[in-house]
Specification:
The chain is about 30% helix and about 15% strand. With about 160 residues, it is an alpha+beta fold.
Length: about 160
């Protein structure tokens, strides 16, 4: 990445996670977060969001609410992920409770619950949208990473 075009891939190794944290950046937006065993060959090591993630993984309370995210998901899934982004650090909700916070979704409707689970499983920016705070739902992060993120927050 260069100063004229801030788009690209950034990655930094996390000893806590035992893998890399990799960001996909498009302009001023984070469009993906992944946790590969090794980074892309052309990944830059420096990015302010990576600094904040590193601090978070060292138990510094962080909610990433001001990080600009570029979500390219269907509108109904976007509403779910936006609701999940509002779950405070160190707190957790059930899939049913998340469903109840989204307009036009019914926590007693199986299809709506499935929609929430799908949105969580396909979350393109886990950690920044903290799906690990949904205790009985899937995550966009691999299960070992999800467990480590929950551990950071005492969940």
């Amino acid at each position: 990445m260069d100063e004229d075009d801030p788009s690209g891939i950034c990655a930094r190794e996390s000893s806590y996670l035992g893998r890399y944290v990799q960001l996909g950046i498009a302009g001023d937006r984070v469009v993906s977060v992944s946790f590969p065993p090794s980074p892309e060959d052309d990944a830059a090591a420096d990015h302010p969001v990576l600094d904040r993630i590193q601090a978070y993984l060292q138990s510094e309370e962080e909610d990433f609410a001001d990080v600009t995210i570029g979500l390219t998901v269907p509108t109904d899934r976007r509403a779910v992920l936006e609701a999940v982004r509002e779950i405070p650090y160190g707190e957790q909700l059930s899939v049913e409770r998340v469903t109840g916070t989204v307009a036009d979704l019914d926590p007693e409707d199986g299809e709506d619950l499935d929609l929430v689970r799908t949105a969580l499983a396909e979350n393109p920016v886990p950690l920044l949208i903290p799906d690990h705070r949904v205790r009985d739902g899937p995550s966009g992060a691999p299960p070992p990473v999800e467990q480590r993120l929950r551990s950071v927050e005492g969940l």
